[in-house]
Amino acid sequence: MTKGTSLLKAAWIIAFVTIVSKFVGFLRDIFIAKYYGAGLVSDAYFYAYQIPSLAIILIGGVGGPFHSATVSVFAKLVNPDDKMPSEKVNKLFNTFLTASFLVFAFLSIIIFIFSEQILNFIIHSNNYQLVELASSHLRIMTPVILIGGIIGIYYGLLVTYRSFLLPNISPVMVSLSIIVILALSRGDKFGTYLAVATTIGALLQFLVQVPGVRKLGFKIKPNFDFKNNPEFKNLVELVFPAALSSTIGQIYVYVDMFFASQLREGAWTAIGYANRIFQFPVGILMAAFLVPLFPVFSKLVGEKRYDEVKYYFHKGVGFLNFIAIPVLFGIILLSYDVIQLVFQRGEFDSEATYMVSQALIFLSFAIIPYVFRDSITRIFYSFNDSKTPFIVAFSSIILKFILNALFIKTMGIAAITLSTSLVTLFNAALLGVILLKRINLNYKIYFKNLFKILFAAMCAFSLNFIIYIFWNVQEGSWFILAFKTFCMIILCMSFYLLFSLLFKIEYAGELIERTKNYIKQKFIR
Prior knowledge:
Elements: H1 5-36, H2 40-59, H3 65-74, H4 87-113, H5 115-122, H6 128-160, H7 165-169, H8 172-185, H9 192-207, H10 210-215, H11 230-260, H12 267-302, H13 306-343, H14 350-363, H15 367-382, H16 387-395, H17 397-411, H18 413-435, H19 443-470, H20 478-502, H21 506-523
């Protein structure tokens, strides 16, 4: 990739397909909210879904350990321009695939058998109906666990060969399945259709990857040669601690589930919606820039071209902050209005809107450390080091528990998302300090850009806050509320861009220049 050009081109492709995927996911949440609101059934489904989601999203998803390990190892073994993989590479693929299938099949069977005991341990509640309902959902969704790691391997291969479309668009299959099945069935009393649709969607998510991997020349042939295979050993050394690290991240979720089950009915559903709304812009940003950046980091680190690693880090993370920081202030200002417009219908009432917005505002403070942490983690992976992120994540479990316990009585739902933001900040800071032993990324440049962007965003927020306060909208005026929200978003973007140019933030100038060039190329002949 040439500096800037190919990276931005890949970023735009990924951003577009991720936007499509996230938008369909948003529609899925609207359907779930309409039919189940924030209550017993939705809580049961979301409690149960946390276990299969660990496999298909955190472990096997884009950016997960199986995807990351595959990219890190295969990027050093293959040339993306080659028409066919070598016999050695194909053998490594099949060895990794075989081992993953055996491990995840075993886990699926265990979780299916002990689903009720597992959920009874996680859900700290005397509500037996909730545990029983969540257990039935989990049993239906256990095949998703088997699919998870295999999807991650396929994602990694496709990204290594610069095929970014399929890995980022395929997650839409789960959302589409839920939308279609709920629309046809109009929901059901116990949410069984939700669990069935999730399983069908995960299977489709895997199947759409198969033609792309076969086109690359990879052929499936089970291989049990797990010994005397240095590349496979390298994969395992990356995957195992990284998977543990993702599992540690899920332990954070289980800690949150433990405390949320002590709150009012619908609390866990509200936290889940807040997290997915948060992930809508942040997930797009992280996928758009870190997915194409990761193979670049891996290759440059392998060739010890550390100055270029620094260049891509500051360019990528700086641009991520430039977009992410106004998202933070936008959430603080408009979260209640947006949630009311998008979700408040059917079983989803004003109280549910308040719970979700409260959780979302405190979660939004995680945006800046989230961007930094995930960017730094990719550099650790490029050094074939997934142990350090694991140790850092593991070290903060107790911190997560303590923060939840401290805040839960006074802040309720907000306590759980605020503790998430603080733990993310702790992890980001610790990883940043540890990485200095490997490579000096010159954080002065990072903080200089960060504070300039923050100042521009705060100036824009102040003006927009004044306008928001004086522009009063009465309850129930849906069209006027939608018009106000749209206008406020436009004003937020306009003021932010204006202040960014005033303070000479380089990313604002680049954005305008690229927009001008695009318009000239497309419309001015």
